[in-house]
Structures are given as structure tokens and as C-alpha cells.
Amino acid sequence: MRKFLFRLLAVLILLGLIGFIGFAYVGDLSPERSEQRAPVTIELQ
Q1: Which end of the chain lies in a sparser environment, N or C, as judged by fewer CB atoms within 10 Å?
Q2: Distance from C-alpha of 11 to C-alpha of 18, rounded to nearest angstrom
């Protein structure tokens, strides 16, 4: 039973590391930057 739990834990850690490395290379989630202009009216007293 201990061998099974150890093997399961090792597989989960390995899959987690592979997922983390894959996300580091592919997972660029930064938004695309674009310039936006909006007209603004300023009322002076």
C-alpha cells in the first residue's frame, strides 16, 4: 500500500512539474496593448 501511495504521489508531482513548465513557456496571459483615445470636455467656471 505504501508503494502505491508513493508512486501515486511521485506521478502527481511529475505531472504538476510538467504542467508548470508548460505554462511558463506557453501561458503568456498578458493582454495586448493598444492606444485608446476618448474625447473629454472640460467645463471651466
Answers
A1: C
A2: 11
Domain residue ranges of the chain, discontinuous segments joined by +: 1-26
Query: Is this prediction's pTM over 0.70?
Result: no
User: 37: which 3 cell numbers?
Assistant: 483615445
Nearest residue to 7 (alpha-carbon basis) of 36, 42, 15: 15
Helices (H), 1-45: 2-26
Alpha-carbon separation of residue 12 from 15, 18, 45 (angstroms): 5, 10, 67
Closest CA to 13 of 23, 5, 2, 3: 5
